[in-house]
Amino acid sequence: MEFNFIAVDQFSIDTLDDLEKFVAIYPDFQTVMLADENELTLLLKLMEMPEFVSQNLNNSDFSKFWDLSGFKLPELDNQQFDKFYENWIQKSHRENNMDEYGNLIFLQGLSTKWNKLKYRLIVKSNI
After folding, report:
1. Contacts of 6 (CB under 8 A, 6+ apart)
2. In the prediction, which pLDDT does 56 show?
3. Are 110 and 29 a contacting pair, CB within 8 Å?
4. How confident is the model at residue 52 (pLDDT cuts 50, 70, 90)?
């Protein structure tokens, strides 16, 4: 399953009407491939986000989204990210490889920038 992380200063639910609009409006979105929503829940808990509620969408490209704007993403240096990643691999039982590592590296590179923006969301693709 594809979970697209975005952060912006302005958000409107109609920007999730279709994939082309989404890509045009949020060009720096980051896609995380997970097996299911249970893995997303685990990931968010490891990111120290204690509460998250999904909202269903009724369109063909996206099925739901999570508004995480009330929380900050973890701002991790190299050592902290490596520790976070090891914890993720251990708890999720996912394969430890470069694809998996690359799946989450945006947390190290974009969190500081994204935490300064008003909205932080995750959008689940129907793909």
Report:
1. 26, 28, 29, 30, 119, 120, 121, 122, 123
2. 95
3. no
4. confident
> Cα 4 from chain centroid?
5
Spatial contact of 108 and 114, defined as CB atoms under 8 Å apart: no
pTM (predicted TM-score): 0.94
Q: Are 127 and 8 in contact (CB under 8 A)?
A: no
Strand partners, 31: 4
Q: What is the CA radius of gyration of the chain?
A: 14
In whole angstroms, give the CA distance from residue 62 to residue 16: 7
| DSSP H or E run through 56 | strand 54-56
pLDDT value of position 104: 95
**Token duo for residue 46:** 């490891």
